[in-house]
Amino acid sequence: MTALSLREAIARLIADDGLGPGDRLPTETRLAERFEVARSTVREALKRLEEEGLVDAVQGKGRFVSALAADIVERPITRYEGVAEMLTRLGYRVTTSVFSVAEVAADQQQAQSLAVELGTPLIRLERLRYGDDQPLVFSIDHLLRDALPGPLGHRDWSTSLTGALAAHGREVTTSVARISAVELPAEIADRHRLTGLGPWLLVTETCLTRTGRRVLLAEDYHRGAMLGFNVRRRR
Amino acid sequence: MTALSLREAIARLIADDGLGPGDRLPTETRLAERFEVARSTVREALKRLEEEGLVDAVQGKGRFVSALAADIVERPITRYEGVAEMLTRLGYRVTTSVFSVAEVAADQQQAQSLAVELGTPLIRLERLRYGDDQPLVFSIDHLLRDALPGPLGHRDWSTSLTGALAAHGREVTTSVARISAVELPAEIADRHRLTGLGPWLLVTETCLTRTGRRVLLAEDYHRGAMLGFNVRRRR
């Protein structure tokens, strides 16, 4: 493992262990054991994290998670996760309204994004995710019909789609997403009484399995005033 | 160089060379020469890029940039670049209105974000970036006063701040950013006649030099209807 990938691993560890600003990092020795690398590699990775402002070193006291690091780990945009999963991690009690589920034929744009023939059967799913009873994420999903076999009526569509796909051997491991700021389309806002909630962060995402198969097109409208994303950027 | 970092390097190469969907990638041999790695490492990296849907392999013909890859390289959110630089890369003719430049004292939040004492002298800069004469990005920057020495009046503030910082040995190499969807604050919209332009993508960013020094706090409002960001996400 190189210092570069170790740095990512340590950043991920901060996120996974729920460390907050001011929390002490494990010692060099513990990190070396945990990631099975030399202490010199750990030191190099920690040095880089310091330079990026994610770790504060205090002489004689150890290394601590910085305030900047806490900003990043809250909702990293480079991490793929289902909406319910993400909201749960942020501490919300999640509930779901399923507005519609139907079989449709892939239009030109959907066919192209999913790399399938025009007219390929898809499942179209329209849902609203609430966190602590507040509407937070409005989702329109299109997934390959054969990715979730069986009659549409026999499935509980209020649960995680990512989870259902994984249970059918089609775990989403990567995605390509586009992020923009939009108003909720008036037709959707009126129909579901979601007017006056301000701008939404629209994430349009093509989701791929480990073998590169494109299984899901997700359009998620995240309520702007409530939900942001964090990212580390490099030149 | 590992297959993982090589994959990033190839993705960056696609962006830097301006390759579009359907364009052929350099051969394994050329990539191995360019990055000074073994062909087996190149093959592994290309395989991963295929699995992520960024590269299409066509039997007997070579490897090509996929439509998904083109989506990503257009405006990758994980890449730090100045606003003028980004707009220029997107093909816009960039012009700048400087609304104000002044010396201010760091307030509590600014001091914390920049890791300086309360009251530390900062330069506050308010500007609007136009692309092809359309207002695209409204920016409020706060930077360390001593990062750009000399009288405020003796500098052309319409040019790149990132460039000016680099010229003073304070090149920004990384940042930590938060992205949200907002309305432009009414006070700003009214004062600069930027009303009715729809939602804006707000990027709030702490920018660091190579040595980890925090030199700049940038608040950039990107016009939502015109500018989006792209990102690859991984589980």
UniProtKB/TrEMBL annotation, chains A, B:
CDD domains listed in its UniProt record: WHTH_GntR
**Per its UniProt record, what Pfam families does this chain match?**
GntR, UTRA
Q: Which residues form the signal peptide?
A: none
Q: Which residues form the HTH gntR-type domain?
A: 1-68
The alphabetized list of GO BP terms reads: negative regulation of DNA-templated transcription
**For this protein, what is any one GO molecular function term?**
DNA-binding transcription factor activity
The alphabetized UniProt keywords are: DNA-binding, Transcription, Transcription regulation
Q: Which residues form a coiled coil?
A: none
**Cell membrane among the record's keywords?**
no
Output the PANTHER family linked to this UniProt entry. MANNOSYL-D-GLYCERATE TRANSPORT/METABOLISM SYSTEM REPRESSOR MNGR-RELATED, MANNOSYL-D-GLYCERATE TRANSPORT_METABOLISM SYSTEM REPRESSOR MNGR-RELATED
Q: What is this protein called?
A: Putative GntR family transcriptional regulator
Species whose genome carries this gene: Microlunatus phosphovorus (strain ATCC 700054 / DSM 10555 / JCM 9379 / NBRC 101784 / NCIMB 13414 / VKM Ac-1990 / NM-1)
